[in-house]
Write a structure and sequence with these properties.
The chain is mainly alpha-helical. It has 5 helices and no strands. The chain is extended.
Length: about 110
């Protein structure tokens, strides 16, 4: 019984949020208000458009099971690395120089 009360309360709160959101939407957004979007989505559940059919077909495809090692082997990119060690070393050296430059007594090192 407590579960039914919780579900009913959740549905009522969701409905209240939907109504409040559509009441506070501006006049120019009235055609795209949350309530209008919900109504069009509810009406389209029986006659989905081509985009919804394509999404449903893509979701129904069986997943491919492969190991992480196999996935990494097949998707390896031989291009230039994202992080260059020389650039990183130069950046760290500049940061070290700036950090030691502000400390008293460490300017001449």
């Amino acid at each position: 019984m407590a579960v039914l009360v919780a579900i009913l309360l959740a549905v009522l709160v969701a409905a209240a949020v939907l109504v409040a959101a559509s009441l506070f939407s501006s006049a120019k957004d009235r055609r795209e208000s949350p309530l209008a979007t919900f109504r069009s989505g509810w009406a389209a559940r029986k006659n989905p458009d081509a985009e919804q059919r394509a999404a449903a077909a893509a979701a129904a495809v069986e997943p491919v099971d492969l190991s992480l090692a196999q996935f990494l082997r097949e998707t390896v990119d031989e291009g230039e690395a994202y992080l260059q060690v020389d650039d990183l070393a130069a950046t760290l050296q500049r940061a070290k120089e700036k950090a030691t430059g502000v400390l008293p007594g460490h300017r001449d090192r």
